[in-house]
Amino acid sequence: MERPIMLQIKDIYYPVLAVFGVPANLLTIVILSRGNCGLSKCISVYMVAMATADLLVMIINVIVHHIFSYFFPYSFLSYTAVCKLIVYMKCNNLDMSVWFTVSFTFDRFVAICCQKHKTKYCTVRTAATVITTVSILVYLENIPYWFAYEPDRIISNVYWGFRPRLDFFSSPAGIAFSWLDSIFVALLPFALILLFNCLTVRRILVANGLRRGLRSHNSENRNDPEMENRWKSIILLFTVSGSFILLWLTTVVSFLSTRLTNAMYYRGDYTAPAYIAAETGYMLMFLSSCTNTCIYAATQTKFRAELKQLMKFPWTFILTMVKQ
User: What's the pLDDT tens digit per position in 143-163?
Assistant: First the structure.
């Protein structure tokens, strides 16, 4: 019997995604850490944190869970304790990826719309504090996942696999955790990103209109470096947050419609519309952990130049060694 088409797509999609995603995020981390992209140190800190979270998503969520655990079902990765650890790390990685994006969006909102607080908030120290705090809260918030699953089977006194604990997800605490998790991972980040972006655009449009009015009488020089910098800033902000929203949208809709307590309901039917919608959403969601590198290369000239230089380095090094 032929395997369902969705499983065939996943067999190809996730390895290809990992081959591209891991090097892309590694290159992003290296390039941004060098500090030669013309970005402020504060922005670079957030972007490095986002790339690091995306790299963890590629390693744990894609490679370990969707590739190794799938193609090697009876390895140590199938031990119940390891399965719980993978689930816990998967949730942490996704949450950090989401909330680092929210933090970056809020930082740009403060920098553009709250000039009085810009010098105090938009600093490397504040960025490091925000990232550390968000990471700690995420790890604490996902602790219930350790108690939400139980062994799927026991073979020779060895616990294998995992499955949801019905007594946990049907309890008031489990239901509350399910709703809070959906709110903090899906609804609240989307609402905040949209809110900050709308306020930022409004501020930039108003400020640009005022500057055009003040400069309309100056016919000698029509170029305005400050307005150009603002547009570059908003392009970077909108491409990052916009791609995040678009690629996460299917997952959010699917997740909120089925909710965490019904996540295994359609597991056995690989042709069910709910399963196809959920898996499509997951694939797009993981794709969002690879797109930022392309966005930076497309919107940031200096990042693109650094990327070209870094890509050429191995070949120039080999040619140099050969000539010697």
Answer: 999 999 999 888 888 888 888
Cα–Cα distance for residue pair 214/228, rounded to 1 Å: 16
Nearest Cα to Cα of residue 284 among 254, 264, 256, 262: 254
Q: What is the pTM of this model?
A: 0.87
Highest-confidence segment of 22-26, 243-247, 252-256, 319-323: 22-26
Cα separation, 164 vs 158, in Å, equals: 18
Q: What is the number of other CB atoms lying within 10 angstroms of the CB of residue 75?
A: 11
Tell me how far apart the alpha carbons of residues 109 and 260 are, in angstroms, rounded to a whole number: 32
**Closest C-alpha among 99, 92, 109 to residue 244:** 99
Encode pLDDT of 49-76 as tens digits: 999 999 999 999 999 999 998 888 888 8
CA dihedral in degrees (133, 299, 26, 127; nearest 10)? -20
Task: Check: CB of residue 247 under 8 Å from CB of residue 217.
Answer: no
Closest C-alpha to 13, from 83, 63, 52: 63
